[in-house]
Amino acid sequence: MTRVSATEFKNNIGAFSDAAMNEPVIITSHQRDRLVLLSAEEYRRLTKALEGITADDKARITKGLERHRKTIIELANR
């Protein structure tokens, strides 16, 4: 996965937009992950996968996220 500063992204938006067609591009600000650029096709695939989720699925996912909350926050702050 490509990781790039917001300034570098701004200065080379075309190249990173092209790169996002193949893999997500993480855009950082002050050395923290802030945004993820991905292709429209990948976005549709991910959001479509969420359409069939039931309330029980959401509760299970939420419980799992809470269990791993500390790790997720630590990773997001890198």
List keywords for this structure.
78 residues, alpha+beta, 19% strand
Draw up the topology in text:
Elements: E1 2-5, H1 6-11, H2 13-20, E2 25-29, E3 32-37, H3 40-51, H4 55-67, H5 69-76
Parallel strand pairs: 1-2
Antiparallel strand pairs: 2-3
- Please give the order of strands in the largest beta sheet: 1-2-3
Secondary-structure element order, N to C: EHHEEHHH
Q: Kindly, what is the distance between the CA atoms of the first and last residues, rounded to a whole number of angstroms? A: 15 Å
Radius of gyration, whole Å: 15 Å
What fraction of the residues are assigned to beta strands by DSSP? Answer: 15-25%
Largest sheet: 3 strands, mixed
Percent helix range: 55-70%
Q: Got a strand count?
A: 3
Please, what is the average pLDDT? Answer: 88
What's the total helix number?
5
> Which residues sit in consecutive blocks of at least 5 with pLDDT less than 50?
none
What structural class do helix, strand and pairing data support? alpha+beta
Quick summary of this structure?
It is built from five helices and three strands, in the order βααββααα. With 78 residues, the protein is an alpha+beta fold. Strands 1-2-3 form a three-stranded mixed beta sheet.
